[in-house]
Design goal:
The chain is an all-alpha fold and 50 residues long. The chain contains three helices and no strands. The longest helix has 13 residues.
């Protein structure tokens, strides 16, 4: 049986949106893989990011 990759993306979105139901996932190292690092640009930064 093949599963379309979009199903996995949708599943991750559901898990991320329902922290109260999937609390074990949110406290696992796997959750960090789906949490993007946010870049803060300041005047002292040495380059531009587009």
């Amino acid at each position: 049986m093949q599963v379309h990759p979009q199903c996995y993306y949708d599943l991750v979105i559901i898990i991320r949106e329902h922290k109260d139901v999937f609390h074990a996932w949110h406290s696992s190292p796997v959750a960090e893989l789906y949490t993007p690092k946010i870049f803060e640009n300041t005047k002292k930064s040495s380059a531009y990011w587009f």
